[in-house]
Amino acid sequence: MYDFANTIFSALFITVYFPLFVVLKGGTPLHVGLVMSGSMLLAGLLVPTLGGVADITQRKKLLLFMFTVLCCAFTFFTGFFGLLLVLVFGLLATFFFHAGLDVYDALLINISTKRNIGWISGLGTAVGYLGTILSVAIAYIIGFFYGFESIQGIQIVFMVTALLFFGFSLFTFFFVKEASKIKIKKQHFAEAFKRVIFTIKNIKKFKSLWLFLSASFLYVDGANTLIIFLFLFAKDQLGLGIIQFLPLYAIMAIAAVIGSLFFGKVTDKIGHKKTLTSVLILWILIILILYFKTTYATFLLTGILGGALLGAIWTITRPMLVELSPKAKIAELFGYQGLTEKFSGVIGPISFGFVAVSLGFRQALLVVAALFLAGIIVLSFVKNKK
What pTM did the predictor assign? Predict the structure, then answer.
């Protein structure tokens, strides 16, 4: 249900309405890229230590609750300011969103076993994309009454997004059990920071883990860049407005549900590395199809296939990190995954935004293809065993 809740934010805020709102306020795709990159960089610097606190105290839910509340608060008020404060509030909302994801992912070991971890991860991802489908329905209702690309309509979307994210997240906070009652104190942050330094100094002991984090640095950057610029690409290349884009986005979300469940089963059977490599190869083929022939038909086709493969990326990444990580450091190491992903988020969105402004959106697709290819190369050096 937390996947369901946070995907509403990802769909309505990150992918569709925040980039559009920035443009309506006089900004550019480069502004969007800078905000998203800045939020990821900030999360990347802080989350490993916060993950260490979660490992020490086993209070993952408490930290997750704090991040969720702050994300929802900034989301709620983003629509009521000029461009500068819109960018600041958007950065903070996205920062707390990403910080919460890493702590949430670490809860996976609380509710799964080695045999079903891929399936459980896929189930969460699939339910998350059902949240995307709900998002499309909500956006249509609001757009019908207040305008699909109006300032007032987007303000209402931001407020509704915040309320739904918080409301559906409560299922996790009330019903997922966590035995620890340890109070989080200042010394826990100092101890967590020492753990972070220890892990960095002993990097050779975790060679395959760091290679995998380097691979995820690349391929997740590609995936996040696609999510951020999906609507602006459709608007620029195909002339689609919100009202035409939302049904396509719903179809992509349905494909992602199916892909998450399918690849969750596959990864448990044939292994995480082999499945992930196959998914990334398919991604490159899809991007090249869209690059060489950008039409409504190819956008729809690649969107459906890409939706399934996007669900696969989130499904496989979580159990593969668990497989490579010592159990006692799981939240900290999910924080490192967050660190690599957020640092990578500095490269992709800015590079895509720069190329899109300089050469065009179609040429910018090659930035994403290059990131996926580099991810495959690094992933080939990862050994399956811990």
Answer: 0.73
More confident residue, 193 or 295: 295
CB-based burial, 333-370: b 16+ in 10 Å, e otherwise: bbbbbbbbbbbbbbbbbbbbbebbeeeebbebbebbbb
Which of 115-119, 271-275, 345-349, 375-379 is predicted with the least confidence, judged by mean pLDDT?
345-349
Q: Is the pLDDT reported for residue 386 higher than 50?
A: no
Chain-centroid distance, C-alpha 203: 26
For residue 369, the domain's CATH number is 1.20.1250.20
How would you class 193 by CB atoms within 10 Å of its CB: exposed for 0-12, middle for 13-18, buried for 19 or more? middle
Per the domain annotation, does 315 fall within a domain?
A: yes
pLDDT for the residue numbered 155:
92
DSSP 237-284: HH---HHHHHHHHHHHHHHHHHHHHHHHHHHHHH-HHHHHHHHHHHHH
Q: Which of 128, 53, 66, 125 shows the shortest CA–CA distance to 96?
A: 66
| Contact partners, residue 202, CB within 8 Å, separation at least 6 | none
Q: Which range of residues forms the domain containing residue 24?
A: 2-175+187-379
Q: Is 25 helix (H, G, I), strand (E, B) or coil?
A: coil
Furthest C-alpha separation in the chain? 58
Query: Which tens digits make up the pLDDT trace of 92-103?
Result: 999 999 888 878
Rg (C-alpha) for the chain, rounded Å, is: 20
